[in-house]
Amino acid sequence: MTCFPLFCRKHHSSTRHPSEFDGELSGVKNVTLFSYKQLRIATDDFSPVNKIGEGGFGSVYKGRLKSGKMAAIKVLSSESKQGVREFLTEIKVISDVEHENLVKLYGCCIEDDHRILVYNYLENNSLAQTLLGGGHSSIQFNWRTRTKICVGVAKGLAYLHEQVKPHIIHRDIKASNILLDKDLTPKISDFGLAKLIPPNATHVSTRVAGTIGYLAPEYAIRGQATRKSDVYSYGVLLIEIVTGRCNTNSRLPIDEQYLLERTWQLYERKELVLLVDTSLDGAFDAEQACRFLKIGLLCTQDALKLRPSMSTILKMLTGEMEVDNNKITKPGLISDFMDLKIKNNAPKLHPEQINAAYDYVLSSDNTTTLPSTSSSQGNSTFTTVAYDQSI
Ligand SMILES: Nc1ncnc2c1ncn2[C@@H]1O[C@H](COP(=O)(O)OP(=O)(O)OP(=O)(O)O)[C@@H](O)[C@H]1O
Ligand SMILES: [Mg+2]
């Protein structure tokens, strides 16, 4: 397959409008521009047989490029109002980024309304479908593998947060965005792409519903992401990997449904070890596992400034730095935060009401109206808090 690096691209498609993005192409050296036809051939005309997933961005297909390389081809929803320029700006940033723990972007396709991203294909799917997939995977996640995954994801995030200039905030760290290669090396996917999400409300609410347990309260309420909101999501993920449990499980008894609340309870009782995944049959390093859970608690603290940076987290994971027990404060939970911020003493919300509220919160920039808990109560209003740029 002939692929044209953007800096020396040829107009091999009559449907593209080069004048639209000529100015944007200067300086972009690492992105290959695929034609729509090339990707149609690679995926057998986007055959449903080749569809491997569906996410907030649209559908993902497995495809074989002409070079023989396998690729994951992500077709952004046609509802995306993203212009070519914004699309390219994001691609430019991501194409310069390369790290062992990040998925590699091969290139993209921009033709008419098509916005397609082409990634390195990863053989072992995502952590959501394997480790947290309810026993449908044949992969054995022993303690060593879990350690490697936790450290690998931390390295990838530390790189995005601290080494790449300008820094990249992921905004959607979660189990389905951690992909595994054939050696179970974790690769963070979708980094820097949050801005490409179509701006319609239905889409946002679908996405938010799927991500609810990972959102730092202040991010959910203000709708603005910081590196420390990524750290919060990483903390939730870390606890999921150690426990082998999703952050929310409505089939469990009520006081065990929310993993973060449960972790805090057991931490207070000095019984953290009870949370470690029972499928390990006791074959794990208890000191290390409890340390990881405590790091998860450090990451999910309510106060942004108390959450450690990713490079500090990395040092604590590897044992280079001690975890100071005295520094751990109660996790910031979205339900607590909302109770605090809602005026008019609104009653404590049920999970479905919290879900609905997330949808409202995330579709707003500023002051947000919360759906009422019953039709007779009227609406309560959130007060937004100033965004701390220094975090
Ligand atoms: N590079 C890849 N290699 C292999 N499979 C992939 C790749 N990228 C995505 N997938 C598969 O496609 C699925 C959907 O991915 P996608 O990123 O669109 O959605 P998501 O991660 O579930 O949600 P979100 O839109 O929030 O990221 C993933 O869960 C994974 O199974
Ligand atoms: Mg994803």
UniProtKB/TrEMBL annotation:
Domain of life where this protein originates: Eukaryota
GO biological process, one term: response to molecule of bacterial origin
GO MF term (any one): ATP binding
Record has ATP-binding as a keyword: yes
The UniProt record lists the keyword Cell wall biogenesis/degradation: no
SMART domains (alphabetical): S_TKc (SM00220)
Entry-linked Gene3D superfamilies: Phosphorylase Kinase, domain 1 (3.30.200.20), Transferase(Phosphotransferase) domain 1 (1.10.510.10)
Keywords: ATP-binding, Kinase, Nucleotide-binding, Serine/threonine-protein kinase, Transferase
GO cellular component, one term: plasma membrane
InterPro entries assigned to the protein according to its UniProt record, in alphabetical order: CR_Ser/Thr_kinase (IPR052059), Kinase-like_dom_sf (IPR011009), Prot_kinase_dom (IPR000719), Protein_kinase_ATP_BS (IPR017441), Ser/Thr_kinase_AS (IPR008271)
Sequence positions that bind ATP: K74
Annotated ranges, domain Protein kinase: 46-323
Positions in coiled-coil regions: none
PANTHER family documented for this protein: CYSTEINE-RICH RECEPTOR-LIKE PROTEIN KINASE 3
Family in the record: Belongs to the protein kinase superfamily.
The protein's name: Protein kinase domain-containing protein
Annotated source species: Capsicum annuum (Capsicum pepper)
